[in-house]
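Note to self: the last two entries modelled the partners one at a time, which told us nothing about the interface. This time every component goes in together.
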Amino acid sequence: MDTTVMLGHGSGGSMMKRIIDEVFFEAYAGEELLRGDDAAVLAPPAPGERIAFSTDSFVVSPHFFPGGDIGRLAVCGTVNDVATSGAVPKYLSCGFVLEEGYPIENLKRICASMAEAAAEAGVRLVTGDTKVVNRGHGDGVFINTTGIGFIPAGVSLGGANIRPGDRILVSGTLGDHGITIMSCRESLSFSADVKTDAAPLNHLIAAVLAAAPNTRCFRDPTRGGISSTLNEFASQAQADMVIDQDSVPVKPSVAGACEMLGYDVMQVANEGKMVCVVAADEAEAALAAMRSSRYGADAALIGEVREMKPERGPKALIRTPIGGTRILDMLVGEQLPRIC
Amino acid sequence: MDTTVMLGHGSGGSMMKRIIDEVFFEAYAGEELLRGDDAAVLAPPAPGERIAFSTDSFVVSPHFFPGGDIGRLAVCGTVNDVATSGAVPKYLSCGFVLEEGYPIENLKRICASMAEAAAEAGVRLVTGDTKVVNRGHGDGVFINTTGIGFIPAGVSLGGANIRPGDRILVSGTLGDHGITIMSCRESLSFSADVKTDAAPLNHLIAAVLAAAPNTRCFRDPTRGGISSTLNEFASQAQADMVIDQDSVPVKPSVAGACEMLGYDVMQVANEGKMVCVVAADEAEAALAAMRSSRYGADAALIGEVREMKPERGPKALIRTPIGGTRILDMLVGEQLPRIC
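The predicted structure of the combined assembly is written out below.
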């Protein structure tokens, strides 16, 4: 086997066949992939179900970091985006853009990690593509994953469902992923519990939907952090999203790192968290379902939805511990480039 | 509006919202995209239909070339891969990996070209993602498109259906795309009719299937050219794929360029051609359907499928004008990197 990626691995010829057989099929060969046609043929959803479809490219740097790697991120990120619609994630495609010279050993580790995350989420990698760019025109490996899920009949989630009076939950501590990447990149050393939270949350979402069938919507607060998520929700719902700073779970080590670096943890990226808006009378049930799920032990009720002030428009707001309320701004530019 | 891509355009914050609104929504806003949730929700296929799913990343260099650009390629490539299954292509996702400093003007041209190709193919861009990498770690723009199509009941295409006695058709002249990219890159000047053939071929495929319902399979001879396609078919079918060199349509200008550059046109990439294997008694009907389709005027019957010699295994073979037969080898390494 070759030890580094070469341009010929993207050629459509026999070298490409070799990398497909020895790296990709080795990690996650299924019936559809092995069939060798240009498109995977998939069974349709059951009657009454609809299709959820979402795509994400991953360019995180570095590729390996405490608690995960670009492969785990690439599977979990798309699984979570598909699952936010209430869908059961079923199938993933995977497109690699590799840079000439990248170690095959690293690529194998990444593929093994993808296979592991896919197995945990219960999704199958059914179709793929590999391109190779010349040295100096990429950054080792970029991965696109695109996912298909099936939405059960009767489930219809989305930011537009949010109503004043609804409650806002988060499935765990914020800021872990962004601070992990930052500390790797700058060779800073925080405490040992600073590691990525990257995780597939489809099972947690399914548990919440079973316990709280009137749930309005889910969104994973990735780039831009929970600030972006709450601002998007406010705009979709034309309502204010108001959270209490004291009730937002943050690990002390992450809070300390944010303070030192001058970051607002509300704007730091997460890769294994869900923000969830639920009807007030189902909030306790939803919270209990989260807390009894894997990855949901630190879930918390963090706020509520209010009528917006028409003269000001819809806003995300945070109540500070000293009793004030400030606007939670969307990140303007870039705080931590390439965190996913 | 900003004039170049900045890291903040990939931030998940308000700069990202701006590039989405002003570039992507401007080019191809549909109901699902505008809804603003993380996953597009799509109507399921009709009863009896199955789902076709295919992904492709595009890293072609340069981004603009005679007859097309990376955007047209990105839509047509995935539409064609989905269509090879016999599916009606319906939905595309689109993931951009942009390099800091890339001109927004170019990105707008690319998006307009994607919108035009999507309209011609009858597919909709329903979900997307944008990442930005720092200067020197990408190459302006890479695009992943992933497609969903619905396969009508009763249609089941694939290389494994091929039988000895079947006929091999190609939908037009070979080598146009690869020679176009080569001539741009090396600033060679061939005749004015050397331009990419990039085109959506789903309507051509539908016409062939209507005229020749026992069609075995389609494949678009992209990277690796028709040599790779015929070798893949031979291996899937466990049969020999035998073509006549004289019957393969090649433009004189492309043939001349190949001769000058030392390329085998059978290994040069195409982006708007289909190889099709049909039952012998439907070959004429399939050929007539191709020829009456847009993009199929130069279609030709180029060969047939034969029993393989067990001691030699399945091969792709070409009969030369002087009466010999040689093995049509799969490209080993890379002839023209980054042609798609």
